Amino acid sequence: MDLAHEEPTGDGEAEEMDRELLGNTHLREPPLYSSHFQGMVRQKAYIFDGHGNFYNKEWDLAEGRDNEFCWYHVELPKVNEKLSQSAQYLIGVLCPPLKLQDILSLVSNGPFCGHVDGALVFRVNSPGPPSSDFTFRIAARVTENSVITVSLGRVPRLGFSEIGQSLLSEIPRVDNPYLGGEQKEGGGIVIKEHVLEFLLTMNHSEEADNPVPKSVSNLVVHILDTHVDHLQDIVTKLEMDLDSVELQMDKGGFALKKQMLDDRRFPNMHLNLQRLLQVIAHGEQVFPRVKEKCSSKGWFASEDINSLEELIGQLRRLKENVGFIANRVTAIQAGLDSWQAEQINRKLYYLSFLSIIFLPLSIITGVFGMNVGGVPWTGQMDPKSKYGFRNRRRAMRRGWSLNRKSFLNRTLGNGGVQGRGGYLRI
């Protein structure tokens, strides 16, 4: 049985992790599908027989017959591009038979749930740079016999793979370079340490452990469940990173704390948490509406309605957990701000001691540097310069009075004002 087709994408880290997880299995190379944007988007096409089996199919966007139903998934590249470019990708792979209104309803930002051209369409697309780990976009177009989904980047556990290929069912041994050849003596599969760290952040099984849906309603629940699991993975990774940072701060000193302040690590983390809260808020708006609209469909099972209710409750608990993490980040940032203020106050304290020493010296040097007579303790015993400031003031007053008298004598001595009608000669 072939796996669903996957075209290459720019998500190199996810591809490398997939090769690590499935590196010991022998898979047949899937056929390549032609596309206007080959190499930019990844496409998966499945057909389910309604009895727990699935097969790889051609990318023809046809609907299933009788109990069969089809699933077509488009994975957009996680790179910084305009939203119009993503719309062009979808037009290239989904048109025809989809129309422009279908493309716009799948690729636009923000939450949405409604009927478009007779199909149920819902999306949880958050705004933000596409390359960010905290930008999530998942949209679906659901009919009775087909589902078309669009995601930004790889969503863990979204697809399906053959039974018996799960790494979690193996007996593992960690690939430790410090042990040399001693680690390969026993049986079991050898995994690398970074793969083990990646698995610790997962709150779900692998694709090989996914139960194969037997109806469209099972598939819709599976899609929403993987979206919630993806959010939970990000929250778990944030918690682990935050625990590691707190441990470093307890052991670190001045240089580490200053580096964290210069890098604005916690403000950026707080901004990412707000983006994550926005994604969860969009899910809280969309999921209840999906449940309400699906409950009126005859082909949507009642058990899956209950599963949607559980996912809504899980989103609410996840929102509370993110709020707790945001409070932790705020508390750590407040502690760093307090530490920075303490450092500044300490420097000002040292500066005040220096001013106590050098301020009196500057006053004394200023007094003895005055170029006047009569300064005490300078040896100037001349009686004329004994009181330099006061004598100079008297001399200035005397000079002003003499100049005034001479001016009046020149102007009024010969009767110039009376002889010329009160005007002065210039």
UniProtKB/TrEMBL annotation:
Keywords: Coiled coil, Membrane, Transmembrane, Transmembrane helix. The chain crosses the membrane at residues 348-368. GO terms for cellular component: membrane. Residues 301-328 form a coiled coil. The keyword Membrane applies. One of its GO terms (molecular function) is metal ion transmembrane transporter activity. It comes from the Eukaryota. The keyword Nuclease does not apply. InterPro entries: MgTranspt_CorA/ZnTranspt_ZntB (IPR002523). This is Magnesium transporter CorA-like family protein. It comes from Carya illinoinensis (Pecan). The lineage of its organism: Eukaryota, Viridiplantae, Streptophyta, Embryophyta, Tracheophyta.
